[in-house]
Amino acid sequence: MRLRMSGLVQSLLLRSFAVAVAACSVSFHNATAQFGGIFGNQGVGGVMIDSNGVLRNATAEDQTLNLEKLRGAMQGAKGDLAKATDMRLISLKGIQQIALESQKQGKEIPEDVYCLGGLTRIDYVFLYPESQDIVIAGPAEPWVLGSQGSIVGKKSGNPVINIDDLATAFRYVNQARNGGISVSIDPTEQGYRQFNQALAGLTSQNINPSVASELARAFGPQQVSLSGIPADSNMARVILAADYRMKLYGMNLAKAPVAGLPSYLEMVKNRANASTALQSRFWMSCDYDAISHSKDRLAWKFSGQRIKTMTETEVFDNSGKRNNTGKADPVAKKWAESFTNKLGELAVKDPVFGELRNIMDLCLVAALIESQNLQSLAACDLSGLLGDSARVQTVKLQTAKSLDPQISFVQSAQSMLVSASGGVMIESWYFASNIKENDTIAQARVTKPSLDSAASWYR
Questions:
Q1: Are 432 and 365 in contact (CB under 8 A)?
Q2: Are 246 and 279 in contact, with CB atoms under 8 Å apart?
Q3: pTM to 2 decimals?
Q4: How far is CA 92 from CA 43, 116, 170, 243, 369, in A?
């Protein structure tokens, strides 16, 4: 979106993204609602979605009441799971069996299974042909309900991985192969033209809240483009949330909750050629090193920072059509790098980024199993979870229908252009094909982990 106005930096962000604010907040209680009816689609984390799909701000009372309900329903980790560990093994065969049996009996998926034993990251995939199993492994810890309604590790504050996102990533693994999983929220061409017409003749001296409201109405609803997963899935909510929060921080509509991360507008507003810099688009993408595997291909290791922020300069013609240039403005690139470097801290302060990181791990695991034919190598049947024939059900959330823009202005001495478009891209199949042999990985694989029954689905 390109905006022109003398003497102003115009940051136009989308209230439509507010559907995503609640993503990590509602992921647990909406998922358990499907299996036991404990929670409804209530508001925590700042917004609510009503029965008509209309967004509104959640009141302090809304948030307090819903957090109390969540705390009353959660039991937390017990027994061995109450201890943090650098390496917890989770049997995919075991959780598939429990999920299908719970579904068959009309029971809730147990909380510890839903939280995958408190797993906060996936570092390894191990194969056990002797017990016909595939295992994911990584650090884990007891879980608690965070202040924003997310389920997080008690020690680190990182969000725990949940079985609903795992089931979605596994079910839609083949769709992800054909173009990846992506989301982008952009203005319509008509909205762009209407907005520019409304801008005509305005200056910094006659901008006021009433004018800002008129500009928002002229701009109109935004387009949400989602591919690779259902729009009503929790995974879609998380991806939208991450994109929304990134824009809030970048366009100075919210202060980042970590030190050393100014907004993009703060970095660019005083430079002489800011109009060029502000034609920048930002999005988040996967970032993994080559996947290492043992010589016998029974042990696989993930490494890398998981997420990186990308940027590209774009231009708009008079009709509102966007064209990419393949180039990046230096200031935009610097902000993208800063945001990437702060994602580890943000994952704790704003857990949606940790949930997005978890989703990227899950998508990579699914793509790895499918592309490397690991089910056959392990003699492990994961058809209840993986691919088009998957039978493990996933939560279906109400999607937002009313998506209104929000406009914010930042004073500057220059006439400027702003692009507020962006998105998330998860290219799991690309990274699943980037593999190399490293037999030292075999040392991490625990022999005979006794994960061959539903009673022993973790270690």
A1: no
A2: no
A3: 0.85
A4: 32, 10, 11, 30, 11
Give me 317's structure tokens: 């013609």
Place of tokens 């997080």: 152
Query: Tokens representing 442?
Result: 């075999």
Rounded CA separation 351/84 (Å): 19
Return d(Cα 35, Cα 58) in angstroms, integer. Answer: 25
Q: How many Å apart are CA 374 and CA 371, to the nearest integer?
A: 8
Residue 153 identity (one-letter amino acid): G
Classify strands 306-316 and 299-301 as parallel, antiparallel or unpaired.
Answer: unpaired
Give DSSP secondary structure letters for 318-359. Answer: TT--EEE-S---HHHHHHHHHHHHTHHHHHHHSTHHHHHHHH
Location of structure tokens 């996947």:
291
For residue 330, count other CB atoms closer than 10 A to its CB.
Answer: 9
Which among 394, 46, 39 has a CA at the least distance from the CA of 230?
Answer: 394
Structure tokens given for 295: 């010589």
10-residue stretch averages of pLDDT, the chain, 459 residues long: 34 31 31 34 46 57 72 85 96 96 92 96 97 96 86 95 96 90 78 77 65 76 81 84 83 89 83 56 92 97 94 65 71 93 94 94 97 97 94 81 59 48 84 94 84 77
